[in-house]
């Protein structure tokens, strides 16, 4: 069996659960949209310089400073044309990386500056995703995009965004999320939104355990009832690793593992925001060994200058994973997607397993 390398990893089918629409723009698109809408505050004037600026600015070691880079991308995503274009290109770029299923999230409340309504924002993004899926199909690639609507945890519109997610759930929206700086903004502040989602039998994930520790994860699960954890990397704080390689799990870590609560881990981003010091220190390897339901994700492809293939290649280099490991992480993600069971199973049996069988040999 040949060890996975970046070139061959690109040919493997992939599933992406945690990717922000406003964190994955093409640098040249940012420049063109900025010119079209009259936004003159970009920190660079060429695509290569802008790409480098985003990567350098995001390498801050702080989630709060990392989030400041989004002011520029959100600023150029305020028109119907801008929203649809960014969504279309997102689908095309992921398909080019052989992502066969992706859930892309964004916060509609951040795209109202030019007078669009929340419903109009969602409609234009979904239009872009459908156009991107069609373009990928013409190019010989199949991808399915589900949309997650995100509420900002420091704001007060989470119930409104939850209702929006339910209103559009038969039109391409598959779930709800909250995001933003964790410290001082616990998920329990948004209980009414999560109770609404549960009452509607709708899915949701919560950014928790990224920059803040176990209390954030505990609230997301015990109080809010999250289906998945966005990042969840700090669950490692409830695991005591013994000197002989053994590990003792605390009650919260045991619950997360026993209940198969998916962890939307984003290795490169976690290093950039200071959630972990270096990729070699990332608990992904430990959590995978302990059979948590770990998944591989990009978080923000522009800010991290990454792709699903690059994230997988980095994990292979760091932890020595082979094709069967990458297949397991991909199936973990597909099992955890917010689409019906039979549709998840079809993608696993008809696309993911056959794709890896060729690579495993």
Automatic annotation (TrEMBL):
Binds 1 zinc ion per subunit. Its cofactor is Zn(2+). Gene3D superfamilies: Metal-dependent hydrolases. The keyword Hydrolase applies. Pfam families: A_deaminase (PF00962). It is an enzyme of class 3 (hydrolase). Keywords: Hydrolase, Metal-binding, Nucleotide metabolism, Zinc. GO terms for cellular component: cytosol. The active site is at residue 210. Catalyzes the hydrolytic deamination of adenosine and 2-deoxyadenosine. Belongs to the metallo-dependent hydrolases superfamily. Adenosine and AMP deaminases family. Adenosine deaminase subfamily. This is Adenosine deaminase. The lineage of its organism: Bacteria, Bacillati, Actinomycetota, Actinomycetes, Mycobacteriales.
